[in-house]
Design goal:
Elements (H helix, E strand, L loop, with lengths): L12 E5 L2 E9 L7 E6 L6 E7 L2 H5 L7 H15 L2 E6 L8 H14 L3 H7 L10 H9 L4 E5 L3 H9 L3 E5 L8 H14 L29
Parallel strand pairs: 4-5, 4-6, 6-7
Antiparallel strand pairs: 1-2, 2-3, 3-5
Pathway: Cofactor biosynthesis; riboflavin biosynthesis; 5-amino-6-(D-ribitylamino)uracil from GTP: step 1/4
Cofactor: Zn(2+)
Organism: Nocardia cyriacigeorgica (strain GUH-2)
Length: 222
Amino acid sequence: MTIVAVPTGDTGHRFTRGGRDIRVRVQEVAGGAGDGHVLVFGEPADNCLVRVHSRCLYGEALGSQDCDCGPELAKALDRIQDEGAGVLVYLEQEGRGCGLVAKAHGYRESERSGADTFTSYERLGLPADARTYTHAATSLLGLGLSRVRLLTNNPDKVAALTAAGIAVTAVPLATTPLSDRAAQYLEAKRQRRGHWIPTDTSSWESQAALLDRPEPQPHGRN
């Protein structure tokens, strides 16, 4: 890969999506570009909308209907555009932090055994979820944000930002599963990781105890 010298200074420019314009600035996430990027839309202030999102090549770029990653990201961006300001922290944590090849192995094992992908990862000797959110929290604090409305169904993200000293109001994202496989994945996230899935009958408040869980420790990638 060719190494280039990236200019410094303001990156602000117009961003058009769905026929609507919004200004955006881009910077590397705390930890460096290899860990992700921060997209600052408009002029966000305390208590703005924030989405902390991990890369999913299948769901975002390739239009896979096997997960809810693409629809969640789209809905989060819709909300940010509606308000005219917000932050997207896009983390390079493909395959729940284990990488795309590990993700493919997990899918293959799930097809073979019928198990959910969390169980499949564990059978392959991988952590069920190796993602961490320390760099995301540091990046948000670096923007001067001490209170955020976090667009998420994942209590681990709420817990990580809260542990870093950020006051978090969770704003769950309701998405419609695009396939039976996606519906099964949502149920596995609810059962295995305590995600609040707005399509079921439980309330976010019923998951409050999960918010006290410490952030998962990082694991090496295979």
